[in-house]
Amino acid sequence: MFREEHGRLLAALVRRFGDLDLAEDVTAEAIAAALELWPVHGVPPNPGGWLMTTARRRAVDRLRRDKAYAARLAVLAVEAERAGPVPPVEPGAELPDERLQLFFTCAHPALAAEDRGALTLRCLAGLTTPEVARAHLVATATMAKRITRAKRKISEARIPFRVPGPDELPERLPGVLQVLYSIFTEGYAASAGPDLQRLDLAEEAIRLARILRRLLPAEREVAGLLALMLLVHARRAARTGPDGEPVLLDEQDRARWDHPMIDEGRAVLTTALTGGPVGPYAVEAAIAALHDEAPDVERTDWAQIVALYDVLLGLVPSPVVALNRAVAVAMRDGPAAGLALLDELTDEAQLRGYHPFAMARADLLQRLGRRRDAAEAYRTALAQAGTEPERAFLRRRIAAVEM
């Protein structure tokens, strides 16, 4: 309950007091008070309302005590007089959900790209600074500086705490979605560390995407992103073996896939695909759905997947999308056709150091019987891989092709 209410509470307090640091402090104090009092007196009928009332009182007390906030308190008093008294949160009453403003504040384009995901995890997911640091694979002190820098930027640049208007939303929403997708991607395939997957991050990204969809039900790309996450995350149990090493799609036990999650993802995807031109997340989700629906790799509709990648390339002309399309072409037309397309991408700067590219080449070379070239490509991937499970997997592949 605390995890769910944290973002909602923080958003309402930032909206009320205009100070992210103050809102964080009194949110933490309210939760600490609940942890102390509720085990003794019982959970109140409206836990969120109790937390809001407690946090609001503590914020006002702090403003009254701190001379540095005297001017702020005067401004708030004037604003409060104009708006009328703030009613207490009655038992059973719904808290106003202002998290949407917080989504757009955390993902504002004025913030550095590396700071947006950190602030989203800190403010909306309620992770501590050390937890956010672990999520981004940096030291806690480094992450604390990033978060402080982002908050200072919000204050100094007077970044508004509001939902963009209809004319701004198409420009600003992709940034919010990209933050969530980046969090999910790091959970799906960790960039470094001892584990291939970081399920806590992936699941937190899905939780935040569910919230965003509730807040923006008419935005189809929000539905597309949620569908994509669900359809991909549904394979999590089969993606690693007992030793934690990767299990490729053609070797996965599909009985271990989360089929209720696949059903949910397909239902959400229907919304994303209905009602006009589709966005890139919806197209990616449609590709994931075709994988999830197939009984095995051989009976996957590779022709349809290639066609969808053609659509995706028109929307997002990215070398990574071209790489994935080449792999699908190899499954449809044979490894030689796929390898020819991969060879056309060798000079793409975005793919230098990107180990899935070297792995894809190695696999196709191995299927063509070019074992020496395959071993060299696997060694390139080994030098670029970030997690130990991937490195162990690649060492086994190298040993197999060199036998």
* Tally of DSSP β-strands: 0
Strand content: under 5%
- Secondary-structure content class: mainly alpha
Low-confidence stretches: 79-95
Radius of gyration over C-alpha positions, nearest whole angstrom: 24 Å
What share of residues is helical? 55-70%
Q: Rough shape?
A: elongated
Number of separate helices: 19
Euclidean distance between termini CA atoms: 55 Å
Q: Main β-sheet, in a few words?
A: none
Strand and helix order: HHHHHHHHHHHHHHHHHHH
Average the pLDDT over all residues and give the rounded result. Answer: 88
List keywords for this structure.
single chain, mainly alpha, Serine Threonine Protein Phosphatase 5, Tetratricopeptide repeat, 68% helix, elongated, WH-like_DNA-bd_sf, sigma factor, transcription regulation, RNA_pol_sigma_r2, transcription
Task: Compose a concise summary of this entry.
The chain is built from 19 helices and no strands. It is mainly α.
Q: Could you explain how this protein is built, in words?
A:
It contains 19 helices and no strands. It starts with a helix and ends with a helix. It is an all-alpha fold and about 400 residues long. It is elongated, with a radius of gyration of 24 Å. The chain has helices at about 1-15, 20-40, 45-65, 70-85, 100-105, 115-125, 130-135, 140-155, 170-190, 200-215, 220-235, 260-275, 280-295, 300-315, 320-335, 335-345, 355-365, 370-385, 390-400. This is RNA polymerase sigma factor. It holds the Pfam family Sigma70_r4_2.
Which helices and strands appear, and what pairs or packs with what?
Elements: H1 2-17, H2 20-41, H3 47-65, H4 70-83, H5 99-106, H6 113-123, H7 129-135, H8 140-156, H9 169-188, H10 199-215, H11 220-233, H12 259-273, H13 280-293, H14 302-315, H15 319-333, H16 335-343, H17 355-367, H18 371-384, H19 388-401
Helix pairs in contact: 1-2, 1-3, 1-5, 2-3, 6-8, 7-8, 9-10, 9-11, 10-11, 11-12, 11-13, 12-13, 13-14, 14-15, 15-16, 16-17, 17-18, 18-19
